[in-house]
Amino acid sequence: MGCIPSSSTVPLVYNNIFSKDTIVTLEKLPMYPAQFNPRCILFNNERILVRTSTLDNAVYSVFSYPKMKHLSYFGEQSEFIVPLEQFNDEFYLVHNDSLYFYKWVEGDSLKLFSTSFFNNIMGQQMLGVAKLNDNLYAYSDNCFDKGMNEFFMINLSRKQKEPKGIYPDTHVNFSSISDFKSAYAHEIIAKPDGSRLLVFYYRTRRCRIYNQNGVLFRDILLNYEPCQTIIDTDIKRRFLHIRDAYVTNNMIYLLCPDTKEVNSPSSLLVANWDGEFKAIYHLGQTISYFFIDELLNCFYGVDSNDPYHFYKLKLSKN
After folding, report:
1. By C-alpha distance, which of 257, 261, 270, 255 is closest to 301?
2. 181 by DSSP, 3-state: which?
3. Is 179 helix (H, G, I), strand (E, B) or coil?
4. Nearest-angstrom CA–CA distance, 50 and 302
5. Which of 127, 253, 262, 258 is nearest to 181 (CA)?
6. Pairing relation of β-strands 12-15 and 216-222?
7. DSSP strand pairing (277-282 vs 289-293)
């Protein structure tokens, strides 16, 4: 059983060598008050938004940036059932058939300011919805969807949903289609200018770049060890290859565990939108979520098992 590219016209490119391969030491910055199980870190308008767990059940914690001073807690689990998504300087989330948009208000919290509807064009729960522009959205295929397409694109004005891409493997040897889709769980992220889409797989170091019409542009497998080029049918032998990703209009950043262990130290991989991987930074620390301040060329991350620190790295310019 071998890798199946999404299109015969786009070859699968293997990559395990980086022009910049370096070991770095992260700077620890205090996170006060402590944020238990910090995750889903977002960067917007001189603020950092951290999804967290608190005694009063607030969902989000707001810090100033770059001073990292705590400003507020806000949000209830009943409202933020799914994590907020970010598109440039706006936040949104999708729940059931509704698309909710949020904006900052006094008191350093986000409040709902508008709601749109998908008019039942998706037909089931959507997870990880990426916004390309006010009319086009994309979301990853999941166990709620029929068929074997990699993702779907939604055109709001036309009230259309169109399947795109195919999985890099077949479900034939898996116990069920549901098990196959769980093994090949993936996420889709839009380039901020809306011109391209990044799809990456969690349990193999496979990533793909599509144009805004959902046409495959690059297909890449980062096959340095440890690596499963084809995900094992035995769930006990699967392990995380890519933990998180962040994109800007210039670059793609992948956060990858160094080993098969659950709390493995992480590495940061850097590529351009042509799929050329330029650098790998061995961070020497478990990082769960992160963002990049491209203006200051800095990496900031959190470890979900460390409620007391942010982690910072000044990236090289070349």
Report:
1. 255
2. helix
3. helix
4. 9
5. 127
6. parallel
7. unpaired
In single-letter form, the type of residue at position 13 comes to: V
| Distance, first Cα to last Cα, the chain | 39
Token pair listed for 140: 């990853």
Coil, helix or strand at residue 39: strand
* Residue the block writes with tokens 């290859």: 241
Q: What pLDDT tens digit does each residue of the chain (318 aa) get?
A: 344 444 457 999 999 999 999 999 999 999 999 999 998 899 987 999 999 876 567 789 999 999 999 999 998 888 888 889 999 888 998 887 788 999 998 878 999 998 887 766 655 666 689 999 999 999 999 887 888 999 999 998 888 889 999 999 999 999 999 999 999 999 999 999 999 999 999 999 999 999 999 999 999 999 999 999 999 999 999 999 999 999 999 999 999 999 999 999 999 999 999 999 999 999 999 999 999 999 999 999 999 999 999 999 999 876
Which tokens is 298 given?
A: 């800095």
DSSP state of 262: T
Residues 201 and 185 sit within 8 Å (Cβ to Cβ): yes
